[in-house]
Write a structure and sequence with these properties.
Chain A: It is found in: Cell membrane. The complex is a heterodimer of chains A (251) and B (293). Chain A has 251 residues and is mainly α. Chain A is built from ten helices and no strands. Chain A folds into two domains: 32 residues; 212 residues, MetI-like fold. Chain A starts with a helix and ends in a 9-residue tail after the last helix. The chains are: A mainly alpha (251), B alpha/beta (293).
Chain lengths: 251, 293
Protein backbone atom coordinates (compact mmCIF):
# COMPACT_ATOMS: atom_id res chain seq x y z
CA UNK A 1 0.00 0.00 0.00
CA UNK A 2 2.92 2.27 0.72
CA UNK A 3 4.10 1.63 -2.81
CA UNK A 4 0.70 2.50 -4.27
CA UNK A 5 0.57 5.69 -2.22
CA UNK A 6 3.99 6.79 -3.39
CA UNK A 7 3.02 5.98 -6.97
CA UNK A 8 -0.11 8.10 -6.67
CA UNK A 9 1.78 10.98 -5.06
CA UNK A 10 4.39 10.86 -7.79
CA UNK A 11 1.75 10.89 -10.55
CA UNK A 12 -0.06 13.78 -8.90
CA UNK A 13 3.20 15.71 -8.64
CA UNK A 14 3.92 15.15 -12.34
CA UNK A 15 0.45 16.41 -13.32
CA UNK A 16 0.86 19.50 -11.12
CA UNK A 17 4.28 20.19 -12.63
CA UNK A 18 2.80 19.82 -16.09
CA UNK A 19 -0.03 22.25 -15.27
CA UNK A 20 2.46 24.69 -13.74
CA UNK A 21 4.57 24.72 -16.92
CA UNK A 22 1.47 25.37 -19.03
CA UNK A 23 0.12 28.12 -16.73
CA UNK A 24 3.38 29.89 -15.92
CA UNK A 25 4.69 29.68 -19.49
CA UNK A 26 1.31 30.77 -20.89
CA UNK A 27 1.72 28.11 -23.56
CA UNK A 28 -0.96 27.86 -26.25
CA UNK A 29 -2.89 24.59 -26.47
CA UNK A 30 -1.34 23.66 -29.85
CA UNK A 31 2.14 23.74 -28.28
CA UNK A 32 1.47 22.07 -24.92
CA UNK A 33 -2.09 21.41 -23.76
CA UNK A 34 -2.72 21.23 -20.00
CA UNK A 35 -3.62 18.01 -18.20
CA UNK A 36 -7.29 18.93 -17.89
CA UNK A 37 -7.66 19.46 -21.64
CA UNK A 38 -5.86 16.20 -22.39
CA UNK A 39 -8.12 14.36 -19.95
CA UNK A 40 -11.15 15.90 -21.63
CA UNK A 41 -9.92 14.86 -25.10
CA UNK A 42 -9.12 11.39 -23.80
CA UNK A 43 -12.71 11.02 -22.64
CA UNK A 44 -14.32 12.60 -25.71
CA UNK A 45 -12.23 10.66 -28.22
CA UNK A 46 -12.27 7.41 -26.26
CA UNK A 47 -13.90 5.45 -29.07
CA UNK A 48 -11.36 6.67 -31.61
CA UNK A 49 -8.39 6.02 -29.30
CA UNK A 50 -9.70 2.58 -28.32
CA UNK A 51 -10.11 1.60 -31.96
CA UNK A 52 -6.46 2.39 -32.64
CA UNK A 53 -5.18 1.11 -29.30
CA UNK A 54 -6.61 -2.36 -29.97
CA UNK A 55 -4.48 -2.61 -33.10
CA UNK A 56 -1.29 -1.54 -31.33
CA UNK A 57 -1.97 -3.86 -28.40
CA UNK A 58 -2.50 -6.78 -30.76
CA UNK A 59 0.77 -6.01 -32.57
CA UNK A 60 2.69 -5.76 -29.32
CA UNK A 61 1.25 -8.94 -27.78
CA UNK A 62 1.75 -11.05 -30.90
CA UNK A 63 5.25 -9.62 -31.38
CA UNK A 64 6.09 -10.30 -27.76
CA UNK A 65 4.90 -13.89 -27.89
CA UNK A 66 6.65 -14.64 -31.17
CA UNK A 67 9.80 -12.88 -29.99
CA UNK A 68 9.82 -14.82 -26.71
CA UNK A 69 9.24 -18.10 -28.54
CA UNK A 70 11.83 -17.44 -31.23
CA UNK A 71 14.34 -15.98 -28.78
CA UNK A 72 13.88 -18.95 -26.44
CA UNK A 73 14.35 -21.50 -29.22
CA UNK A 74 17.36 -19.66 -30.62
CA UNK A 75 19.03 -19.54 -27.22
CA UNK A 76 18.51 -23.28 -26.76
CA UNK A 77 19.79 -23.93 -30.27
CA UNK A 78 22.89 -21.82 -29.67
CA UNK A 79 23.53 -23.45 -26.31
CA UNK A 80 23.19 -26.91 -27.85
CA UNK A 81 25.35 -26.55 -30.90
CA UNK A 82 28.91 -25.18 -30.99
CA UNK A 83 28.57 -24.92 -34.77
CA UNK A 84 25.55 -22.65 -34.41
CA UNK A 85 27.48 -20.55 -31.93
CA UNK A 86 30.37 -20.11 -34.35
CA UNK A 87 28.15 -19.26 -37.29
CA UNK A 88 25.30 -17.30 -35.80
CA UNK A 89 26.56 -15.52 -32.71
CA UNK A 90 28.82 -13.00 -34.50
CA UNK A 91 25.94 -12.32 -36.88
CA UNK A 92 23.62 -11.62 -33.97
CA UNK A 93 26.07 -9.25 -32.33
CA UNK A 94 26.64 -7.47 -35.64
CA UNK A 95 22.90 -7.13 -36.18
CA UNK A 96 22.78 -5.16 -32.93
CA UNK A 97 25.07 -2.56 -34.48
CA UNK A 98 22.31 -1.75 -36.99
CA UNK A 99 19.65 0.49 -35.48
CA UNK A 100 16.47 -1.52 -35.88
CA UNK A 101 14.55 1.70 -36.59
CA UNK A 102 16.56 2.17 -39.77
CA UNK A 103 15.05 -1.07 -41.06
CA UNK A 104 11.46 0.04 -40.51
CA UNK A 105 10.93 1.52 -44.01
CA UNK A 106 12.33 -1.61 -45.65
CA UNK A 107 10.15 -3.84 -43.48
CA UNK A 108 7.11 -1.84 -44.53
CA UNK A 109 8.17 -2.24 -48.14
CA UNK A 110 8.55 -5.99 -47.73
CA UNK A 111 5.66 -6.79 -45.44
CA UNK A 112 3.18 -4.08 -46.34
CA UNK A 113 1.19 -1.57 -44.33
CA UNK A 114 -0.71 -4.12 -42.29
CA UNK A 115 -0.09 -5.74 -38.92
CA UNK A 116 2.72 -8.01 -40.01
CA UNK A 117 5.37 -5.31 -40.53
CA UNK A 118 4.71 -3.94 -37.02
CA UNK A 119 4.70 -7.36 -35.44
CA UNK A 120 7.97 -8.11 -37.15
CA UNK A 121 9.40 -4.79 -35.96
CA UNK A 122 8.44 -5.59 -32.35
CA UNK A 123 9.83 -9.10 -32.72
CA UNK A 124 13.10 -7.79 -34.14
CA UNK A 125 13.60 -5.35 -31.31
CA UNK A 126 13.01 -7.90 -28.53
CA UNK A 127 14.65 -10.91 -30.15
CA UNK A 128 18.19 -10.02 -29.11
CA UNK A 129 17.58 -9.21 -25.44
CA UNK A 130 15.52 -12.38 -24.96
CA UNK A 131 18.00 -14.60 -26.80
CA UNK A 132 21.10 -13.20 -25.17
CA UNK A 133 19.73 -13.19 -21.61
CA UNK A 134 18.48 -16.78 -21.93
CA UNK A 135 21.59 -17.97 -23.77
CA UNK A 136 23.92 -16.53 -21.14
CA UNK A 137 21.93 -18.25 -18.42
CA UNK A 138 21.99 -21.56 -20.34
CA UNK A 139 25.77 -21.38 -20.56
CA UNK A 140 26.09 -20.79 -16.83
CA UNK A 141 24.64 -24.09 -15.60
CA UNK A 142 26.57 -24.96 -12.44
CA UNK A 143 29.30 -27.41 -13.48
CA UNK A 144 28.70 -29.85 -10.58
CA UNK A 145 25.11 -30.40 -11.81
CA UNK A 146 26.45 -31.28 -15.24
CA UNK A 147 29.00 -33.63 -13.67
CA UNK A 148 26.25 -35.37 -11.74
CA UNK A 149 24.15 -35.75 -14.88
CA UNK A 150 27.09 -37.19 -16.78
CA UNK A 151 27.83 -39.78 -14.11
CA UNK A 152 24.14 -40.68 -14.23
CA UNK A 153 24.59 -41.49 -17.91
CA UNK A 154 22.41 -38.70 -19.24
CA UNK A 155 21.95 -37.82 -22.88
CA UNK A 156 22.95 -34.19 -23.72
CA UNK A 157 19.45 -33.46 -24.99
CA UNK A 158 17.95 -34.59 -21.72
CA UNK A 159 20.51 -32.62 -19.72
CA UNK A 160 19.35 -29.59 -21.69
CA UNK A 161 15.69 -30.24 -21.02
CA UNK A 162 15.84 -31.43 -17.41
CA UNK A 163 18.69 -29.32 -16.02
CA UNK A 164 20.01 -26.52 -18.20
CA UNK A 165 16.68 -25.04 -19.31
CA UNK A 166 15.00 -25.05 -15.87
CA UNK A 167 18.17 -23.65 -14.31
CA UNK A 168 18.22 -20.85 -16.90
CA UNK A 169 14.57 -19.79 -16.63
CA UNK A 170 15.36 -16.77 -14.42
CA UNK A 171 17.64 -15.53 -17.22
CA UNK A 172 14.81 -16.02 -19.71
CA UNK A 173 12.58 -14.04 -17.34
CA UNK A 174 14.93 -11.06 -17.25
CA UNK A 175 14.97 -11.08 -21.05
CA UNK A 176 11.16 -11.11 -21.11
CA UNK A 177 10.96 -8.17 -18.71
CA UNK A 178 13.13 -6.10 -21.04
CA UNK A 179 11.10 -7.28 -24.00
CA UNK A 180 7.86 -6.08 -22.41
CA UNK A 181 9.23 -2.54 -22.42
CA UNK A 182 10.84 -2.72 -25.86
CA UNK A 183 8.03 -4.36 -27.80
CA UNK A 184 5.68 -1.30 -27.80
CA UNK A 185 8.56 0.86 -29.09
CA UNK A 186 8.96 -1.49 -32.04
CA UNK A 187 5.27 -1.44 -32.87
CA UNK A 188 5.04 2.36 -32.66
CA UNK A 189 8.07 2.89 -34.89
CA UNK A 190 6.49 0.51 -37.39
CA UNK A 191 3.27 2.51 -37.31
CA UNK A 192 5.07 5.81 -37.76
CA UNK A 193 6.75 4.61 -40.91
CA UNK A 194 3.62 3.40 -42.59
CA UNK A 195 0.22 2.44 -41.27
CA UNK A 196 -3.43 3.34 -41.43
CA UNK A 197 -4.26 2.20 -37.91
CA UNK A 198 -2.72 2.08 -34.45
CA UNK A 199 -1.72 4.51 -31.75
CA UNK A 200 1.51 5.45 -33.53
CA UNK A 201 -0.46 6.35 -36.63
CA UNK A 202 -3.00 8.32 -34.57
CA UNK A 203 -0.25 10.25 -32.79
CA UNK A 204 1.40 11.20 -36.06
CA UNK A 205 -1.95 12.20 -37.55
CA UNK A 206 -2.93 14.30 -34.51
CA UNK A 207 0.47 15.94 -34.47
CA UNK A 208 0.18 16.89 -38.13
CA UNK A 209 -3.19 18.51 -37.54
CA UNK A 210 -1.99 20.40 -34.46
CA UNK A 211 -4.28 18.31 -32.24
CA UNK A 212 -1.61 18.07 -29.61
CA UNK A 213 -4.19 17.18 -26.95
CA UNK A 214 -5.16 14.07 -28.91
CA UNK A 215 -1.48 13.23 -29.39
CA UNK A 216 -0.93 13.41 -25.65
CA UNK A 217 -4.07 11.42 -24.92
CA UNK A 218 -2.82 8.61 -27.21
CA UNK A 219 0.62 8.80 -25.64
CA UNK A 220 -0.84 8.40 -22.17
CA UNK A 221 -2.86 5.35 -23.25
CA UNK A 222 0.28 3.85 -24.76
CA UNK A 223 2.30 4.52 -21.62
CA UNK A 224 -0.36 2.98 -19.39
CA UNK A 225 -0.55 -0.07 -21.63
CA UNK A 226 3.24 -0.48 -21.52
CA UNK A 227 3.24 -0.22 -17.71
CA UNK A 228 0.45 -2.78 -17.42
CA UNK A 229 2.21 -5.10 -19.85
CA UNK A 230 5.42 -4.85 -17.90
CA UNK A 231 3.60 -5.51 -14.62
CA UNK A 232 1.80 -8.49 -16.17
CA UNK A 233 4.97 -9.99 -17.62
CA UNK A 234 6.75 -9.40 -14.32
CA UNK A 235 4.01 -11.21 -12.47
CA UNK A 236 4.05 -14.07 -14.93
CA UNK A 237 7.83 -14.38 -14.63
CA UNK A 238 7.78 -14.32 -10.87
CA UNK A 239 5.10 -16.97 -10.73
CA UNK A 240 6.27 -19.36 -13.42
CA UNK A 241 9.94 -18.72 -14.08
CA UNK A 242 11.81 -17.24 -11.12
CA UNK A 243 10.09 -19.17 -8.37
CA UNK A 244 10.67 -22.57 -9.90
CA UNK A 245 14.39 -22.37 -10.02
CA UNK A 246 15.99 -20.40 -7.28
CA UNK A 247 19.55 -21.34 -8.02
CA UNK A 248 20.99 -23.45 -5.22
CA UNK A 249 22.53 -21.28 -2.56
CA UNK A 250 25.98 -22.81 -2.63
CA UNK A 251 27.54 -25.04 -5.20
CA UNK B 1 33.78 -23.89 -21.00
CA UNK B 2 31.32 -25.85 -23.17
CA UNK B 3 34.03 -27.82 -24.97
CA UNK B 4 35.44 -28.84 -21.62
CA UNK B 5 32.11 -30.48 -20.82
CA UNK B 6 31.43 -31.81 -24.27
CA UNK B 7 34.52 -33.96 -24.36
CA UNK B 8 34.07 -36.37 -21.45
CA UNK B 9 30.44 -36.78 -22.30
CA UNK B 10 31.27 -37.91 -25.77
CA UNK B 11 33.96 -40.34 -24.75
CA UNK B 12 31.70 -41.59 -22.00
CA UNK B 13 28.83 -42.17 -24.41
CA UNK B 14 31.11 -43.90 -26.85
CA UNK B 15 32.31 -46.18 -24.11
CA UNK B 16 28.71 -47.05 -23.33
CA UNK B 17 27.97 -47.72 -26.95
CA UNK B 18 31.01 -49.92 -27.35
CA UNK B 19 30.39 -52.05 -24.31
CA UNK B 20 26.67 -51.74 -23.84
CA UNK B 21 25.03 -51.09 -20.51
CA UNK B 22 26.30 -53.92 -18.41
CA UNK B 23 24.31 -53.29 -15.28
CA UNK B 24 21.02 -55.20 -15.34
CA UNK B 25 18.00 -53.69 -13.69
CA UNK B 26 17.87 -54.67 -10.06
CA UNK B 27 15.13 -55.14 -7.56
CA UNK B 28 17.30 -55.09 -4.48
CA UNK B 29 15.18 -52.73 -2.46
CA UNK B 30 12.14 -54.97 -2.75
CA UNK B 31 14.01 -57.36 -0.52
CA UNK B 32 13.79 -57.46 3.25
CA UNK B 33 16.14 -55.13 5.07
CA UNK B 34 18.48 -58.01 5.90
CA UNK B 35 19.48 -58.17 2.22
CA UNK B 36 21.42 -54.99 2.75
CA UNK B 37 23.70 -56.66 5.22
CA UNK B 38 24.63 -59.68 3.16
CA UNK B 39 28.23 -60.01 2.06
CA UNK B 40 29.19 -58.55 -1.28
CA UNK B 41 29.09 -61.77 -3.32
CA UNK B 42 25.37 -62.17 -2.66
CA UNK B 43 24.71 -59.03 -4.65
CA UNK B 44 25.58 -60.89 -7.81
CA UNK B 45 22.01 -61.99 -8.35
CA UNK B 46 20.75 -58.44 -8.34
CA UNK B 47 23.51 -56.42 -9.98
CA UNK B 48 26.99 -56.93 -11.30
CA UNK B 49 29.03 -57.81 -8.22
CA UNK B 50 30.93 -54.81 -6.96
CA UNK B 51 34.38 -55.05 -8.54
CA UNK B 52 37.61 -53.81 -7.06
CA UNK B 53 39.36 -50.93 -8.77
CA UNK B 54 42.95 -51.13 -9.89
CA UNK B 55 44.61 -47.81 -10.45
CA UNK B 56 48.21 -47.34 -11.44
CA UNK B 57 49.84 -44.49 -13.25
CA UNK B 58 50.30 -40.77 -13.08
CA UNK B 59 48.17 -37.77 -13.93
CA UNK B 60 49.31 -34.77 -15.95
CA UNK B 61 47.79 -31.41 -16.51
CA UNK B 62 49.22 -29.24 -19.27
CA UNK B 63 52.56 -31.04 -19.15
CA UNK B 64 52.84 -30.70 -15.35
CA UNK B 65 52.77 -33.78 -13.17
CA UNK B 66 49.72 -33.64 -10.89
CA UNK B 67 50.38 -36.84 -9.00
CA UNK B 68 52.00 -40.22 -9.34
CA UNK B 69 53.28 -42.54 -10.39
CA UNK B 70 51.16 -44.32 -7.86
CA UNK B 71 49.50 -47.65 -7.51
CA UNK B 72 46.43 -48.52 -5.48
CA UNK B 73 43.63 -51.02 -5.21
CA UNK B 74 40.18 -50.14 -4.02
CA UNK B 75 38.81 -53.32 -2.48
CA UNK B 76 35.68 -54.94 -3.91
CA UNK B 77 32.64 -54.24 -1.75
CA UNK B 78 34.85 -52.36 0.70
CA UNK B 79 34.83 -48.82 1.97
CA UNK B 80 38.08 -47.04 1.14
CA UNK B 81 38.89 -43.61 2.52
CA UNK B 82 41.38 -41.46 0.65
CA UNK B 83 42.93 -38.97 3.03
CA UNK B 84 45.52 -36.32 2.37
CA UNK B 85 46.41 -32.64 2.31
CA UNK B 86 44.48 -30.41 -0.08
CA UNK B 87 45.82 -29.93 -3.56
CA UNK B 88 47.42 -33.34 -3.70
CA UNK B 89 44.99 -34.65 -6.32
CA UNK B 90 42.47 -36.69 -4.32
CA UNK B 91 39.48 -35.18 -6.06
CA UNK B 92 41.18 -35.42 -9.44
CA UNK B 93 41.68 -39.13 -8.84
CA UNK B 94 38.01 -39.52 -7.92
CA UNK B 95 36.92 -37.56 -10.99
CA UNK B 96 39.10 -39.76 -13.19
CA UNK B 97 37.34 -42.84 -11.83
CA UNK B 98 33.99 -41.13 -12.46
CA UNK B 99 35.02 -40.41 -16.06
CA UNK B 100 34.56 -36.68 -15.52
CA UNK B 101 38.02 -35.26 -15.93
CA UNK B 102 38.72 -34.40 -19.53
CA UNK B 103 41.52 -31.90 -19.00
CA UNK B 104 43.74 -34.20 -16.98
CA UNK B 105 45.77 -36.76 -18.88
CA UNK B 106 46.12 -40.05 -17.03
CA UNK B 107 49.00 -42.30 -18.07
CA UNK B 108 48.45 -45.80 -16.81
CA UNK B 109 45.62 -48.14 -16.00
CA UNK B 110 42.31 -47.46 -14.39
CA UNK B 111 40.32 -50.71 -14.42
CA UNK B 112 37.70 -52.65 -12.65
CA UNK B 113 38.75 -56.15 -11.58
CA UNK B 114 36.03 -57.71 -13.77
CA UNK B 115 37.46 -55.96 -16.87
CA UNK B 116 34.11 -54.34 -17.63
CA UNK B 117 34.13 -50.61 -18.34
CA UNK B 118 33.57 -48.22 -15.45
CA UNK B 119 31.19 -46.02 -17.42
CA UNK B 120 27.62 -46.49 -16.25
CA UNK B 121 28.70 -48.31 -13.11
CA UNK B 122 29.60 -45.41 -10.84
CA UNK B 123 27.47 -43.09 -8.73
CA UNK B 124 28.66 -39.79 -7.33
CA UNK B 125 27.88 -38.00 -4.11
CA UNK B 126 29.56 -34.64 -3.63
CA UNK B 127 30.08 -32.15 -0.85
CA UNK B 128 27.17 -30.12 -2.12
CA UNK B 129 23.92 -32.08 -2.28
CA UNK B 130 23.39 -31.00 -5.92
CA UNK B 131 19.62 -31.12 -5.59
CA UNK B 132 17.67 -29.34 -8.33
CA UNK B 133 15.83 -26.52 -6.53
CA UNK B 134 12.87 -26.66 -8.92
CA UNK B 135 12.19 -30.36 -8.30
CA UNK B 136 10.58 -31.80 -5.20
CA UNK B 137 12.26 -34.53 -3.19
CA UNK B 138 10.74 -37.41 -5.17
CA UNK B 139 11.55 -35.85 -8.53
CA UNK B 140 15.11 -35.18 -7.42
CA UNK B 141 15.47 -38.84 -6.55
CA UNK B 142 14.02 -39.79 -9.94
CA UNK B 143 16.30 -37.40 -11.85
CA UNK B 144 18.68 -40.12 -13.03
CA UNK B 145 15.89 -42.16 -14.63
CA UNK B 146 14.53 -39.07 -16.39
CA UNK B 147 17.97 -38.11 -17.64
CA UNK B 148 18.42 -41.58 -19.10
CA UNK B 149 14.97 -41.53 -20.68
CA UNK B 150 13.70 -44.39 -18.52
CA UNK B 151 10.27 -44.56 -16.96
CA UNK B 152 10.64 -43.23 -13.43
CA UNK B 153 9.86 -45.89 -10.83
CA UNK B 154 7.80 -43.96 -8.27
CA UNK B 155 7.16 -46.96 -6.03
CA UNK B 156 10.85 -47.67 -5.71
CA UNK B 157 11.61 -43.98 -5.06
CA UNK B 158 9.08 -44.03 -2.23
CA UNK B 159 10.74 -47.10 -0.70
CA UNK B 160 14.23 -45.65 -0.96
CA UNK B 161 13.04 -42.38 0.56
CA UNK B 162 11.53 -44.42 3.36
CA UNK B 163 14.88 -46.09 3.98
CA UNK B 164 16.57 -42.72 4.47
CA UNK B 165 13.73 -41.58 6.72
CA UNK B 166 12.18 -38.98 4.44
CA UNK B 167 8.74 -40.49 3.81
CA UNK B 168 7.06 -37.40 5.24
CA UNK B 169 8.96 -34.99 3.02
CA UNK B 170 8.54 -36.44 -0.48
CA UNK B 171 6.60 -33.46 -1.84
CA UNK B 172 8.78 -30.73 -0.37
CA UNK B 173 11.26 -28.76 -2.43
CA UNK B 174 14.90 -28.78 -1.28
CA UNK B 175 14.76 -25.25 0.15
CA UNK B 176 12.21 -26.48 2.71
CA UNK B 177 14.68 -29.06 4.05
CA UNK B 178 17.57 -28.87 6.51
CA UNK B 179 21.15 -29.51 5.41
CA UNK B 180 21.05 -33.03 6.83
CA UNK B 181 17.74 -33.83 5.13
CA UNK B 182 19.06 -32.52 1.82
CA UNK B 183 22.10 -34.76 2.07
CA UNK B 184 19.76 -37.69 2.81
CA UNK B 185 17.89 -36.92 -0.41
CA UNK B 186 21.26 -36.99 -2.17
CA UNK B 187 21.91 -40.39 -0.59
CA UNK B 188 18.50 -41.64 -1.73
CA UNK B 189 19.28 -40.40 -5.25
CA UNK B 190 22.59 -42.29 -5.13
CA UNK B 191 20.79 -45.47 -4.00
CA UNK B 192 18.26 -45.09 -6.81
CA UNK B 193 21.14 -45.14 -9.26
CA UNK B 194 22.01 -48.58 -7.88
CA UNK B 195 25.61 -48.64 -9.10
CA UNK B 196 28.20 -51.11 -7.81
CA UNK B 197 30.84 -48.38 -7.41
CA UNK B 198 30.04 -45.31 -5.32
CA UNK B 199 32.30 -42.26 -5.27
CA UNK B 200 31.99 -39.90 -2.33
CA UNK B 201 33.68 -36.51 -2.41
CA UNK B 202 33.51 -35.19 1.16
CA UNK B 203 29.72 -35.54 1.21
CA UNK B 204 29.32 -34.77 4.91
CA UNK B 205 31.86 -32.01 5.43
CA UNK B 206 29.24 -29.24 5.39
CA UNK B 207 27.08 -30.86 8.09
CA UNK B 208 27.17 -30.22 11.83
CA UNK B 209 28.89 -32.86 13.97
CA UNK B 210 25.74 -34.64 15.15
CA UNK B 211 24.07 -34.77 11.72
CA UNK B 212 27.35 -35.82 10.16
CA UNK B 213 27.77 -38.84 12.43
CA UNK B 214 24.15 -39.90 11.78
CA UNK B 215 24.61 -39.55 8.02
CA UNK B 216 27.82 -41.58 8.24
CA UNK B 217 25.99 -44.43 10.00
CA UNK B 218 23.12 -44.40 7.53
CA UNK B 219 25.40 -44.25 4.51
CA UNK B 220 27.60 -47.12 5.67
CA UNK B 221 24.49 -49.21 6.27
CA UNK B 222 22.86 -48.48 2.92
CA UNK B 223 25.99 -48.68 0.77
CA UNK B 224 27.25 -51.93 2.27
CA UNK B 225 28.32 -54.41 -0.37
CA UNK B 226 29.32 -51.71 -2.83
CA UNK B 227 32.82 -50.59 -3.67
CA UNK B 228 33.07 -47.18 -2.05
CA UNK B 229 35.81 -44.64 -2.61
CA UNK B 230 35.52 -41.69 -0.28
CA UNK B 231 37.68 -38.60 -0.46
CA UNK B 232 37.85 -36.87 2.90
CA UNK B 233 39.84 -34.31 4.85
CA UNK B 234 38.58 -35.58 8.15
CA UNK B 235 40.70 -38.18 10.04
CA UNK B 236 37.72 -38.86 12.34
CA UNK B 237 35.58 -39.80 9.36
CA UNK B 238 38.22 -42.12 7.96
CA UNK B 239 38.72 -43.76 11.37
CA UNK B 240 34.97 -44.37 11.77
CA UNK B 241 34.06 -45.59 8.29
CA UNK B 242 36.99 -47.06 6.43
CA UNK B 243 37.78 -50.69 5.75
CA UNK B 244 40.94 -49.37 4.11
CA UNK B 245 42.60 -46.05 4.82
CA UNK B 246 44.83 -44.63 2.11
CA UNK B 247 46.93 -41.53 2.63
CA UNK B 248 47.83 -39.62 -0.47
CA UNK B 249 50.78 -37.26 -0.42
CA UNK B 250 52.91 -35.70 -3.12
CA UNK B 251 55.27 -38.63 -2.91
CA UNK B 252 52.63 -41.32 -3.39
CA UNK B 253 50.03 -43.37 -1.63
CA UNK B 254 50.47 -45.35 1.54
CA UNK B 255 47.95 -47.33 3.54
CA UNK B 256 47.26 -47.03 7.23
CA UNK B 257 45.69 -49.80 9.31
CA UNK B 258 42.07 -49.05 10.26
CA UNK B 259 40.73 -49.89 13.74
CA UNK B 260 39.94 -53.61 14.09
CA UNK B 261 36.17 -53.34 14.73
CA UNK B 262 33.72 -53.30 11.78
CA UNK B 263 32.49 -49.93 10.42
CA UNK B 264 30.66 -47.77 11.31
CA UNK B 265 32.56 -47.54 14.57
CA UNK B 266 31.18 -45.76 17.59
CA UNK B 267 32.19 -42.12 17.83
CA UNK B 268 33.63 -42.72 21.28
CA UNK B 269 35.31 -46.04 20.52
CA UNK B 270 38.83 -46.04 21.98
CA UNK B 271 40.57 -47.67 19.02
CA UNK B 272 38.79 -45.35 16.61
CA UNK B 273 39.82 -42.26 18.55
CA UNK B 274 43.39 -43.53 18.67
CA UNK B 275 43.46 -44.09 14.90
CA UNK B 276 41.94 -40.65 14.39
CA UNK B 277 44.73 -39.11 16.48
CA UNK B 278 47.45 -41.02 14.67
CA UNK B 279 46.02 -40.03 11.29
CA UNK B 280 45.88 -36.38 12.26
CA UNK B 281 49.47 -36.50 13.49
CA UNK B 282 50.51 -38.10 10.21
CA UNK B 283 48.66 -35.49 8.17
CA UNK B 284 50.27 -32.68 10.15
CA UNK B 285 53.65 -34.20 9.43
CA UNK B 286 53.08 -34.36 5.69
CA UNK B 287 51.74 -30.83 5.66
CA UNK B 288 54.77 -29.55 7.54
CA UNK B 289 57.04 -31.24 5.07
CA UNK B 290 55.14 -29.59 2.26
CA UNK B 291 55.50 -26.20 3.86
CA UNK B 292 59.20 -26.58 4.50
CA UNK B 293 59.86 -27.36 0.83
Amino acid sequence: MKKAASLFASALFAVLLWQAVVTLGALPRFILPGPVLVAETLWKSRALIAEHAVITIAEVLIGLMLGALLGGLSAIGLATSPVARTLIRPMMVFSQAIPVFALAPVLTLWLGYGLSSKIFMALLIIYFPVTSAFFDALMRTPAPWLDLARVMGAHPRRIMWHIRVPAALPGFASGLRLAAVYAPIGAIIGEWVGASKGLGYLMLLANGRAKIDLMFASLIVLAIFTLLLHAGVDRFCRHYLDGKSRTAKAI
Amino acid sequence: MPTRHALPLQSYDNARKRHGNTTPATLFDDLPVSAFHRPAQDWGIYMTPAPSLLISGSAWFDGTLLFGPLQLTIGAGKWTCLLGPSGVGKTTLLRLVAGLDAVTRFDGHLNASDDLPLAGRTALMAQSDLLMPWLNVTDNVLLGARLRGKTPDHARAARVLGRVGLSDHTRKTPDALSGGQRQRVALARTLMEDRPIVLLDEPFSALDARTRSQMQDLTVELLSGRTVLMVTHDPAEAARLADTILIMTETGISSFPPPPSPAPRAVDDGETLKTQGQLLALLRQTTQQDESV
